[in-house]
Amino acid sequence: MDPAFLHDERLYLQHGRAELHVMERHRDHLVQDIEHARELADRIGIHVPLEAERAERKRLALIGVGNQFRRDDAAGLEVARRLRQADPPGVMIAEQEGEPASLLEAWSGADEALVIDGVSSDAKPGTLHRFEVGKDPLPAELFRPSTHALGIAEAVELARELGRLPRRLAVYGIEGREFSSGEGLSKPVQLTVDRLVAELYEELGGT
Question: pTM of the entire structure?
Fold first, then answer.
């Protein structure tokens, strides 16, 4: 090869390395400045969250499931609506009818998900059932579809098969009394909704 060409190439590489070292020094200084700023903020009582912390706080989904026009079947929807108005920090809130594909989409990308639905069993109206989804399926006799074509139990097992379960999934079932056509929750269900909204708001970091 032409020695002059090799000489020019070496000069180009040396220049590139020098620029890279300068960029690395600037990066190191910038990191030091950021850490110094965080230390100063901490001293005066200001907490500046890391980007990872911000992202983590955005990875919780709360999903209300139900049918607005089937009385107590709208309990989960009511919880979701009231929490959306309260605006707890970092929570994605959705309302669904319970169709499995929509539920999988609603908690897609979330590390944690809370699902609330109105259920019908032999329990006293207003009873609050709570389950942490693990290796075992949800009890079919409790989470059988009320007015949905398919229920949450089917959505959970579909997500399990597809590997699309959140890291943590908690399911709340509010025992209903009235599932006839119409709007408005029965009194025992309304009282449970009020209590659950307050509990979840506190749990999710609301003030």
Answer: 0.69
